[in-house]
Each structure stands twice: as structure tokens, then as C-alpha cells.
Write a structure and sequence with these properties.
The structure holds 3 protein chains of 3 kinds. Chain A is mainly alpha-helical. Chain A has 21 helices and 2 strands. The longest helix of chain A has 35 residues. The termini of chain A are far apart. Chain B has a domain of 138 residues: Four Helix Bundle (Hemerythrin (Met), subunit A) (Up-down Bundle). By secondary structure, chain B is mostly helical. Chain B is built from 6 helices and no strands. In chain B, helix 1 packs antiparallel against helix 5 and helix 3 runs antiparallel to helix 4. Chain C is an alpha+beta fold. Chain C contains 7 helices and 11 strands. In chain C, a hairpin with a 4-residue loop joins strand 2 and strand 3. Chain C is elongated and about 90 Å long. Classes of the chains: A mainly alpha, B mainly alpha, C alpha+beta. At the B-C interface, loops of B face helix 6 of C.
């Protein structure tokens, strides 16, 4: 009986039972549905075993949207709980689990896959490549990420969710104070997903360095590709820190080591330090690609080239370097003395300079332009002022003496949502709307899209500006309740209303997708926005080989030049194209990883050992496997090209 | 697949080129991994709690033997790659075998060393210092173990398939990995053992 | 569309400024001690400066959007190709750099201020109070007065207080917003927080760092009183409060919430603060570490004499 007891949720409530039933029924419905429509074979052949960067990208997108929903529900629950003093909607344990998972889900399982979706879909197209450098590795990256995500998300119905915050500071996250398996989920699930992300980083750096179209020098790459390149460099340098950190945390929890414990020499602040050595670059991994997307969108709809290309690149490089030297600003209050605080205070503020350069460059890109307010552009124009507000509050937080008062308060919460939502989430939605026609062959409804953007912004302002105020009034973050006498209730109610409006905006987004699938016109051509870079030069839908003939590049906006200045993109004849074969191995190996992770979380050692051998077996199999890929014949390419050209008009 | 004969075998195809660059980037990530472990180790070095210190438990003899074994294996894998470039299959395999034997011997000594530590009361759970020490050494040891099997698989493939662009590419990448582990060991030797013994 | 945005932001700015300067001041901006005053001044300074930046960006944005919107341009207008100009870029880098340098100077200066005995109180001996947290309570030990309280703090106004912070368990953060910013309390080292109250008054304090299930109610009350009242209180405690025994302290450490309580004697006598941290800075801690573990008794007395010499 003991064996089964640990799978029980430690603090069950009606909500959890309801979601168990809901999840069970949904899974059942999906399985029944796929079986009924006889789609298992299709799923296996076309999606599960695929190594095509575009399809892998779409799977990342679906995961991200699913997690946006999950994290969003968490968020609304929190705001509702705090909307009234002494609210009893959630108890303290449940609230702690909700905010911990909200953070992890939104950063690691929503924002990360969302940007990796853009990496996958866009980078090869923007540089005129056939696929990424290691397509098979790419599939493995995705499936590891997916399994890590799955593992993390079953936590709240099997054994209990992590409850020590998304930062999981020790000793709170140690066995002594966090007794459920929740934090084991945190350690193992993020580890598995993190390995996937690390491989994504290696893959894209190689892709960008080696597979650019002829003539595309580094300084002629589209801005999104540049941002992707830098973000992936940060991934490669930051994620190993996380790997080690989580391994040490796992050992503390499962094997009784003393890295972060309170006795035998353990050092709790080592966790905090290493966490933020990874954690701070992590936020730049998210924001830089977002900047890249804004650059593409603003330049497209201002109908102008991007102002200050070189300084845009330089500023990203500077930001990426600085991002590794600011981690201690997350705990100015640790007592490391005024000198250390001063140094980290200055390096942190210094980041404002390159970021400011980017803001001004976007403003100058609008200068003398011919600005069209499409939905993606609207998001970008809402981004600039709202993000500036988030940025300047960041500078305020960087003043370490004052930070003693901001730290751990709602002011801080307001700040990082103020940079992440207008910065990252808006970019994701803008990018999604912008590239939707390229990916799916029809546009999202513009009117509904603009409503979404406005609603989201109104909701955002209402939800987060009050937090700046309550923070300065002494409301600490992560409190599940407060008393009437604190006077926080009015502002928190406003905040809840804002969160509800944001939720409505997301519902509207879903409705927009539904509406557009049904009513949007097809046959919109391959370049509906009159855009500027290579991804728009190929057909819609994009053929599996991306470009029948490798494009020739001479400037930062080759497609624009080919439209306006008579630059010839595609020279030469069609040749046969080498493509990688599909493989089920990444999926199978990731499934074994899932079971391995599960066994580790619940300390079921025999199963852990068996699955570990299984993983090594997969690696050995891969080592001996002979796979030279396949060729697409010239006739087949010509046929596809004719068909797609026909579809275009 | 296009094979460019003007280049060494391991670089001769587009795919091979990608793999070598990709692996260099992977080594970059590995450097960060070990750097983090070293940072943790140096931070926790003096936090011995109730357990022994480095000076109490380190023994120079086995460590020196391990160092010599690993350095020698790094040299022989270099010779293997040299033989491969001269297209001498037998010699390549021979040096590979020597490398793997040296690697296995290294692992044998390391296992002895670990049992010794546990024996003298420096187990994984003893203190922050022992945890950091054994994790750092263990991570390196794990890399060598994985490398051993990887090398073994490549050896079998060379035997079966001969020196093709693929096997050459794999061997070359393996040699990079093996040299890298050697360099990490030199850091471990100097900054963990020697510094700890002083 | 743009106007709407402008209005939202304007309303926002107005709301913020009314709240900030309004009738009921926010705790952090209503300082009652020199440290909190320094911090509140920094905060207000940066708010105005940053507000200026936001307004400038917003103004440029609105202007550009109005002027260069497509509907405001001739149909055949082709936007020019502009690479970027070094002078403009230099200005865009230069102005932020000047602002950052200015704020850095302010920041560094304040850093040293808040990490030292509060300004205006340097001439007197600070009162040392050990504040340690356990799930989910605060224990305040007054080694000089030989008093220990739980969940409330009496301090003399007009005198510098030196808090020595540490924790039994998770990392917590000791925070009295109106007297000054917070600092972490950790289990393996002692941190120091310098505060002072300018006048008698009642303040709320709390643990600001998430520490598990009982975190929300992990609060305490602070009363600053005149030095005379404070001496009376000390005397009263010595007469009425029970002695703090080791068993009693163990009982207090049990997880949970407790009301206020008062004792004579401090737990520092039998459970000293972890002031010799485990060798994070000096290299010869190995020895001292061993000593600490083997010779608890002698160590205690050492520790004690050290405090009183402060």
C-alpha cells in the first residue's frame, strides 16, 4: 500500500479532482478520436517520426499554446485568490503549488517552446537552407522537451506539484521543508526538457554558421536570424549551468547529499547563485528573439529597411555578454556588502544602454516610413511604450539600495511581467499572426486580431500597474492571503479584473483561429504582407525542401530587392535534393526518458535502471545505424513546383 | 553524397563538416558544465562539516597513475587519428584498442579511489565538500565510461566497414572528445588534488 | 487608435502620481528612519527620471506614428533606404550612458549609506538585536538586555539598531518597510542590517521571502519608544517574564504560528548564531570549523564576549 500512497496528491481539493477527471476524459477523447478516424498511421508517419524543421516547429507551437492555457489558468486562479482579503478559494499549499508551476510553465514550457518554434520554422527559411544542420537531433530535442513538459504537467494529479516557487530556493526545496515529490518533478522534468533545449542550441548555431545561402555573410543575415544566433549561443553557455544545478538538487533530494542543506557544510545560497547564473541569461534567451521578430515586423510595415542594422547586432552582442554578469541583482539583499552590490548594480543598469539603442532604432525605422497598422504592427507599437515602462522599472530595481525595498514585493512581480508580457508574449502573438499565412496558407482575421491586441493591453495595464503600487505599499509576493487592514484589496481587485480581461483576450485569439479556419480566404499567395526576407520567397505552403533552387543573396533584404530592384534570387537549374530520412528513434528514446524520469521522481530504482539501460541502448543503436538520407528527384521537384505555383494564383 | 577528396577523410562531406563544428560547440557546452562543477567545488571546498578535508583523504599514488594512464591514452588516440589519415586501418584499430585499454585502466583506478574514499569516511553524503568532490570526479568518470563504450562501437564499425568518411568522421570526433576529457583531468589533477594536498 | 493608447498611458501616469503623492502614502514612500528615507528618496528620484524617459519615448512614438502613417502619405510614396547615422547612434548611446552614470553614482552612494550605521546616529553605540526566523515566527534576542521576544520587537527610537539576522530553516527576509529595506536571514551565516527609527511609533514588519505554507502570516510588529519607556520595558520584562530554557526554545522552533511571547535570557547562550560561517571567505576555516563542532561550550563564551564588545 505504501508503494501506491506516494502517488496520491498530498493536498487534494475539488479543483484537482475535477481536473483529473477532465484530463482523463480529454485523453480518452483524443485516443478514441484518432482511432475512429484511423489517424494513428498518419500521426506516426507524418508527425511523430518527422525530422522536418517546419513540422517540428509546429509541434513546438502546439505545445506552447497548450502551456499558455495551463499557465494562464494558474494566473487567473492566483489573481482571483488575491482579489479579496482572506479569500478561501485556494489554501496556502495549493496557492504555493499554483504560483510555482505558473512560473515554470510560463518560462520553460510556454515561452521557450514558443521561441524555439520560431527558430525552427524561420531560421532555415530565412537563411535559405533545406533544413537544420542535424534534423534527427532536432526531433530528439523536441521530444525530450515534450516529455519533460508532460512529466512536469502530470505532477499535480500524481504525487503533488512543486511548491517551493519557480526558483526552488534551498533549503525550502530540500527534503526537510518540501516533503512531497513535487520538487523532484521540478528537478527531473526541467532536466529532461533542458537537455533538449541545449541540443537545440548546438543545432542552430551550427545551422546558422554553416548553412547560409551563398552570399549571405554574417552581416547580411536577417535580424531575426541574428537574434536566434545570439540566443542559441546563450543557450549553449547557460544551460549547462542549469544541468549541473538540477543534478546537484536531484542528488540532495534523492541521494541525501549536502550541497544545499543546512548542515554538514551545505550552502543554500550556492543554489540561488547558480540558479541565476542560468536564470538571468535565460530571460535574454527569451527577449532577444522577441526583439528579432519586432525588427522584422516593424521594418515590414514601416515599408523601410531596419534602421541601424549594425548597432542592432552590436547591441544584442553586448546584451548577451552583460547578461552573464548581472546574476547577483536577484539577491542584492543577501548581504554580500556594498561593493559587490555596487558592481552588480552598475552592470545591470548598463544593460539599459544597448536596450535603449534598440528602442531608438525601431523608432527611427518608423521615421519616414509608410506605416500600416496591421495586427502584428499593432502589437509592436503597443510593445514599445509598455516595454519601455518595464525597462525603466528594471533600472529602478537595479539601484541596489532601493532594491532592498522592492525585493520580494509585488513591485518586482509587476516589473518582470511588464517586460515579459509586452516583450516576449506580444512578440510571440505578433510573430504568430505575421507568419500564420506562411505556415497555414490563410490569414488570421485582422479585426479580431486588433481587438485581441487592444483587450490584451488594457487587461495588462489593469492587471500589472496596480502591483507596482501595492508593492511600494509593502505587499510581498507569494502571499496566498492578506488581511483587510493592509489596504491591498482594492488594487488587487483591479488586478484580477485585468487578468480576467487578458483571459478574454486569449479566448478571442482562439476564436479568431477558429473563425479564420472557417472563413478566411485561401489562395493568398506566398507574400501577403509584402515582406522583405527570404522566407517569403518560397511557396505557401512551404515544400518539404524549402527552396527548389538555393537562393543567391546580396543584401540584408534579398526578397525585397528581388521585388523592387531586379535582384535575381534563383539562378541555375533544379538539381536533385538530398533530404534526411524520418526516424522513430527520437520519439522512442524520449518515451523511455519519460519513464526514467518518472521512476527517478518516485525513487523506483529497478525501473530507473532498466530505462537507463534502454536509453543507452538507443544511443548504441544510433551509433551503429547507417542512414544516408534520400534524394528527391528533379522530376518530383518540378512537379511540386508546378503544383504550388498553380495554387498560388 | 558529395565527397571532396582534397580534404582529409573526416572533413570530406558537408555532413561531416557540420558534425565536427557541432561537436566543437558541444565541447563549449561541456566546458561550461565542468566550469560550473569546478565553481561549486571551489565554493564548497572548505565546507567539510564533520567530514574529512581533501588533505585527509587524497593519495598521490593512484592519482598519479590515473593521470599517466589518461595522458598516455590521449597520446595514443592522437596516433590513431594520424594512422587514419594515412589510411592505415590496422594501425588505427591498434591505437584505438590501446586507447580503450588505457581508458579502462583509468576507470579501474578511479573505482578503487572511490571505494577508498568511502572507506575512509568520505562518502557522498558526508559533507558538502565530499559531495562536490565526488560529483566532479564522478561526472568526469562518467564521461570516460561513456567514451569507452562509444570508442568501442566506433572500433567495431571501423573493423566492419573500414575507413569510410563516416567512420573517419566518428573517430575524429571521438578523438576530440577524448582529448577534451584529458584536459579536464589536468584541471582536476592540478586544482583539486595538488591544491587539496598542499 | 493611437490616441486611445495615449489616453491609457496618461491615465496611468496620473493614477500613479496621485497615488504616490496622495493622501494615504505608500509604506515604502512614508519613511520613519534614515535608511528608509535614503531609499525612498532614491525611489522618487528614479521614478521622476524614468517617467521622463517614458514620456520622451512615447512622444516620439506618437509623433512618428501620426506623421508617417500610410493614410497620411501619398499613394506612390516610397520610403527611403537609410542605413543609420553614426551621430544619431552616438546620441542614442550617449544620453542613456549619462543617465546610467548619474544613477550609478546615486546607487553606489546609497549602497554605502544603507550598509553603515544610519546617518546622524554614528556617535552612539548601536543596539544589537539578533533576529532569527523559524517556520513561521521571528525570535528577537537582545543580548545586552538579556531578553528574548517572539513575533514582536520593542526598540528605542533615536538610536541606531544593528540587526543580526539568521534563520532556522528556509531563507527568510527581514523587512520593516517604514524603517528600511530588507535583508536575508540564512541558516549558515549571519547578515547585518542597520536601521533606526527617528521617532516613537508602530510599524509592521514581515518575512518577505517565501518560506513555505505559513509564509503569508509570518509577520511581526515593531514598536519604537522613547529611551525611557524602553528601559522601563526592559525592567518590566526582567521582573515578570519566564526564563527561556533550551526545551522551551526547542518547542518554539516547532513549525507553526505563535502569538507574542517574552522571556528573560536569550537562546544565543545555548544555541549561538552561526557567525563563523563555513569558510566562505577565509582559508583557514578548516580548523575553526572543527573547533566549532567539537567545542561548543568554549565557543559559546567566545561568541558572547565578542558581541558585548561590539
Amino acid at each position: 500500500m505504501d508503494f501506491f500512497d506516494r502517488f496520491a496528491v498530498p493536498h487534494p481539493s475539488f479543483l484537482i479532482y475535477a481536473s483529473m477527471v477532465g484530463i482523463g476524459l480529454t485523453m480518452l477523447a483524443i485516443v478514441v478520436g484518432i482511432t475512429y478516424f484511423k489517424k494513428w498511421g498518419y500521426l506516426w508517419r507524418e508527425w511523430i517520426t518527422t525530422v522536418d524543421h517546419k513540422r517540428i516547429g509546429i509541434m513546438y507551437l502546439l505545445s506552447a499554446l497548450l502551456m499558455l492555457f495551463r499557465g494562464g489558468v494558474d494566473a487567473v486562479m492566483m489573481r482571483y485568490q488575491l482579489s479579496m482579503p482572506e479569500n478561501t478559494f485556494l489554501d496556502s499549499q495549493h496557492y504555493n503549488e499554483v504560483f510555482s508551476t505558473h512560473g515554470v510553465v510560463m518560462i520553460l514550457f510556454m515561452a521557450m517552446p514558443f521561441i524555439i518554434f520560431f527558430f525552427n520554422y524561420l531560421v532555415p527559411l530565412q537563411i535559405g537552407a533545406r533544413d537544420v544542420a542535424f534534423p534527427r537531433l532536432n526531433a530528439l530535442s523536441f521530444w525530450l522537451f515534450f516529455m519533460g513538459m508532460g512529466l512536469f504537467n502530470i505532477s499535480f494529479i500524481v504525487g503533488g506539484s512543486p511548491d517551493a516557487g519557480w526558483t526552488s530556493y534551498f533549503p525550502l526545496a530540500g527534503n526537510e521543508f518540501s516533503t512531497s515529490v513535487g520538487t523532484n518533478y521540478y528537478m527531473i522534468a526541467i532536466q529532461i526538457a533542458g537537455i533538449g533545449t541545449l541540443m537545440t542550441g548546438i543545432n542552430f548555431i551550427t545551422t546558422i554558421l554553416k548553412m547560409r545561402a551563398p552570399g549571405m555573410k554574417l552581416m547580411k543575415m536577417p535580424m531575426f536570424t541574428w537574434s536566434a544566433f545570439i540566443a542559441n549561443v546563450i543557450i549553449v553557455f547557460a544551460f549547462p549551468v542549469l544541468t549541473v544545478l538540477l543534478a546537484m538538487g536531484t542528488m540532495d533530494r534523492l541521494f541525501g547529499t549536502n550541497f544545499f542543506t543546512t548542515d554538514n557544510g551545505g550552502m543554500d545560497m550556492l543554489w540561488a547563485n547558480l540558479f541565476w547564473v542560468w536564470g538571468h541569461p535565460e530571460v535574454y534567451i527569451l527577449i532577444l528573439p522577441a526583439f528579432g521578430l519586432y525588427s522584422e515586423i516593424i521594418s515590414t510595415f514601416a515599408r523601410r529597411n531596419l534602421y541601424g542594422y549594425k548597432s542592432m547586432v552590436a547591441s544584442m552582442v553586448v546584451i548577451s555578454l552583460l547578461s552573464f554578469f548581472v546574476w547577483a541583482h536577484h539577491f542584492f539583499t543577501m548581504g554580500q556588502g556594498p561593493l559587490a552590490n555596487s558592481i552588480f548594480s552598475i552592470t545591470t543598469m548598463a544593460i539599459a544602454v544597448p536596450t535603449g539603442v534598440k528602442i531608438f532604432n525601431w523608432l527611427f525605422t518608423l521615421w519616414k516610413g509608410k506605416i500600416e497598422f496591421t495586427t502584428p504592427m499593432l502589437y509592436s507599437m503597443l510593445f514599445i511604450p509598455l516595454f519601455t515602462l518595464g525597462g525603466v522599472t528594471g533600472v529602478m530595481l537595479a539601484m541596489s539600495a532601493a532594491d532592498y525595498q522592492y525585493h520580494n514585493t509585488m513591485f518586482l512581480v509587476a516589473h518582470f511581467h511588464n517586460v515579459i508580457i509586452p516583450g516576449v508574449v506580444y512578440a510571440m502573438l505578433a510573430g504568430l499572426t505575421f507568419y500564420w499565412p506562411k505556415i497555414f496558407g490563410f490569414m488570421l482575421n485582422e479585426k479580431l486580431g486588433k481587438w485581441t491586441a487592444w483587450l490584451l493591453s488594457v487587461g495588462f495595464v489593469l492587471a500589472f500597474i496596480p502591483m507596482y503600487i501595492t508593492g511600494l505599499d509593502g505587499q510581498a509576493r507569494r502571499m496566498y492571503t492578506y488581511s483587510e487592514s493592509t489596504g491591498f484589496s482594492a488594487m488587487n481587485m483591479v488586478s484580477f479584473i485585468g487578468a480576467a480581461i487578458m483571459a478574454i483576450a486569449f479566448v478571442l485569439l482562439v476564436y479568431n483561429i477558429y473563425y479564420s479556419i472557417r472563413y478566411s480566404p485561401r489562395n493568398i499567395g506566398s507574400d501577403p504582407w509584402d515582406a522583405r526576407s527570404l522566407e517569403w520567397a518560397t511557396h505557401t505552403p512551404v515544400p518539404e525542401y524549402n527552396f527548389a533552387i538555393t537562393p543567391q543573396v546580396e543584401s540584408t533584404q534579398p526578397f525585397w530587392d528581388s521585388k523592387k530592384n531586379g535582384h535575381q534570387l534563383f539562378k541555375g537549374d533544379i538539381e536533385k535534393i538530398h533530404m534526411p530520412n524520418n526516424s522513430g528513434l527520437p520519439f522512442i528514446m524520449s518515451c523511455i526518458f519519460f519513464v526514467f524520469g518518472f521512476a527517478m521522481i518516485f525513487s523506483i530504482w529497478p525501473l530507473a535502471i532498466i530505462t537507463l539501460i534502454g536509453i543507452l541502448g538507443c544511443l548504441a543503436y544510433r551509433s551503429f545505424e547507417k542512414d544516408h538520407g534520400r534524394y528527391i528527384s528533379v522530376e518530383e521537384i518540378k512537379e511540386t513546383e508546378t503544383r504550388l505555383r498553380g495554387a498560388k494564383k | 553524397m558529395k565527397v571532396d577528396n582534397s580534404l582529409p577523410l573526416e572533413y570530406s562531406t558537408e555532413e561531416n563538416n557540420l558534425k565536427i563544428l557541432g561537436f566543437w560547440i558541444f565541447i563549449g557546452a561541456e566546458i561550461m558544465l565542468f566550469a560550473t562543477l569546478f565553481t561549486a567545488y571551489f565554493t564548497l571546498e572548505n565546507r567539510t562539516g564533520n567530514g574529512p578535508t581533501g588533505a585527509d583523504i587524497f593519495e598521490i599514488a593512484p592519482v598519479l597513475v590515473e593521470t599517466i594512464l589518461l595522458l598516455a591514452s590521449s597520446f595514443t588516440i592522437g596516433l590513431a587519428i594520424h594512422a587514419m589519415r594515412l589510411n592505415k586501418k590496422k594501425a588505427t584499430m591498434g591505437f584505438f584498442i590501446v586507447t580503450l585499454i588505457l581508458g579502462a585502466a583509468f576507470l579501474g583506478f578511479e573505482i578503487y579511489e572511490f571505494t577508498h574514499y568511502v572507506h575512509v569516511g568520505a562518502g557522498l553524503q558526508t559533507s558538502a565538500f565530499t559531495a562536490a568532490l565526488l560529483t566532479t570526479l564522478g561526472t568526469h568518470g562518467l564521461h570516460v565510461t561513456l567514451g569507452f563504450f562509444w570508442g568501442l562501437f566506433i572500433l567495431i564499425q571501423i573493423k566492419k566497414r573500414g575507413l569510410t568518411p563516416e567512420t573517419a568522421n566518428k573517430s575524429f570526433i571521438f578523438s576530440l572528445y577524448w582529448h577534451f576529457l584529458d584536459i579536464i583531468w589536468i584541471f582536476i589533477f592540478s586544482f583539486i588534488y595538488l591544491k587539496g594536498m598542499m | 487608435m493611437k490616441l486611445k493608447m495615449k489616453w491609457i498611458l496618461l491615465t496611468m501616469v496620473i493614477t500613479i502620481s496621485t497615488v504616490l503623492t496622495g493622501c494615504e502614502p505608500l509604506l515604502v514612500l512614508d519613511p520613519k528612519g534614515p535608511q528608509a528615507k535614503t531609499q525612498a528618496d532614491d525611489i522618487m528620484l528614479s521614478i521622476w527620471l524614468m517617467l521622463g524617459i517614458v514620456i520622451v519615448v512615447l512622444a516620439i512614438l506618437v509623433f512618428v506614428l501620426l506623421k508617417y502613417r500610410a493614410s497620411n502619405q501619398p499613394k506612390d510614396y516610397e520610403p527611403p533606404h537609410i542605413e543609420g547615422s553614426p551621430i544619431v547612434e552616438a546620441i542614442c548611446i550617449g544620453i542613456p550612458i549619462i543617465i546610467v552614470i548619474f544613477l550609478s553614482i546615486v546607487s553606489v552612494k546609497s549602497n554605502y549609506e544603507v550598509e553603515a550605521t544610519p546617518a546622524g546616529y554614528e556617535d552612539q553605540e548601536p543596539l544589537v538585536i539578533y533576529a532569527s526566523s523559524s517556520n513561521w515566527k521571528w525570535h528577537f534576542s537582545y543580548p545586552e538586555e538579556n531578553i528574548e521576544t517572539v513575533n514582536y520587537l520593542y526598540i528605542p527610537a533615536d538610536r541606531a539598531i544593528e540587526f543580526k539576522l539568521y534563520s532556522y530553516g528556509p531563507i527568510t527576509s527581514f523587512w520593516i518597510p517604514q524603517l528600511g529595506g530588507q535583508k536575508y536571514a540564512m541558516s549558515d551565516m549571519v547578515t547585518t542590517l542597520h536601521l533606526a527609527a527617528d521617532a516613537p511609533g508602530e510599524f509592521s514588519g514581515r518575512n518577505a521571502n517565501f518560506s513555505g505554507a505559513g509564509f503569508a502570516e509570518n509577520t511581526f510588529e515593531v514598536t519604537a519608544m522613547t529611551p525611557a519607556d524602553y528601559l522601563d520595558w526592559v525592567e518590566e520584562v526582567h521582573e515578570t517574564a519566564p526564563a527561556l530554557t533550551e526545551d522551551k526554545f526547542e518547542e518554539l522552533l516547532e513549525p507553526g504560528h505563535l502569538g507574542r511571547s517574552t522571556y528573560t535570557g536569550t537562546h544565543l547562550e545555548f544555541a549561538p548564531a552561526p557567525e563563523h560561517d563555513h569558510g566562505s571567505t577565509d582559508n583557514n576555516t578548516n580548523e575553526s570549523e572543527h573547533e566549532q563542532h567539537n567545542e561548543h561550550e568554549s565557543h559559546d563564551s567566545d561568541e558572547h564576549s565578542e558581541h558585548t564588545n561590539h
